[in-house]
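seq:
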Amino acid sequence: MAKNDLINGSIWEQYSNKVQDRMNNPKFMGEITEEEATARGAKLIVADFGAESCGDAVRLYWLIDPATDIIIDAKFKSFGCGTAIASSDTMAALCIGKTVDQAVKITNLDVERDMRDTPDEPAVPPQKMHCSVMAYDVIKAAAAKYKGIDPEHFEDEIIVCECARVSLGTIKEVIKLNDLKTVEQITQYTKAGAFCKSCIRPGGHEAREYYLEDILAQTREEMELEKLQAQAGACASSGMAPEAKLSFEELNLIGKFKAVEAILDSDIRPMLQMDGGNLDVIDIKPSDDGKTDIYIRYLGACSGCASGAGATLYAIEAVLKDNLSENIRVMPI
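struct:
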């Protein structure tokens, strides 16, 4: 097929030969019927997933041996671009012969790597990485349907970079362990932001809840707080006189973070963690009415809990007011 049959000009060369071959000659496109499942003594699972950012959609068919949970056959239908077809074809091939639990561990990076011609050359241009993410998500949908659970069961962390499937926890841990100071260093260590780049800062082709620039700034602040805490501990152990006690309003931003975190660690987080929840302090800002607004994000079981905007919120605010300042206001986001 001529290059301009699917893609024009130099963009064509950004796609590997394997991708081009699977675009034109998909091996697993089609459907599996209930009759075929019955004839082979297998359970048929049909799952759908659509990507709102581009309008593409994929339907995945699995034939599963119920005695072993092994996927004995897989096919797909793709309603989208050539890259979506290639990614879905590769995804289906990777599923066959695996158990459902093993298939769930297939990531979008596994799909993309399998489509490469050489290990160091990406199979698709960065803006097309979302197609392999879609393949990953439909696997989760199929596995959840087979197990009778919610697809979110397989997602136990907040994902910041969808392209590389890098979590918020991983990014923060890598920044702290390696003392990273730039977004470019985060990308070097984790691959987050290496593909479509939407997770780096606002303004990309797809809006994100978290951005690398903000995570870096917040984590660096946390690191500075930890350093100050360590220094304070060293001063106490050496017998040095502590600084005169300041009111909460007189503290700088780092001091306020430190004070709030100390109260949360001692009086709030243990109770939340008993129920499988937690919270993060996202920001502390003075408001025009003289209040200090503390922005928090609920985690785990607390996320989406109705009391997070009621009794739990009031309790958190009351504890902080009693211990730090009557002018504190807690704002969940």
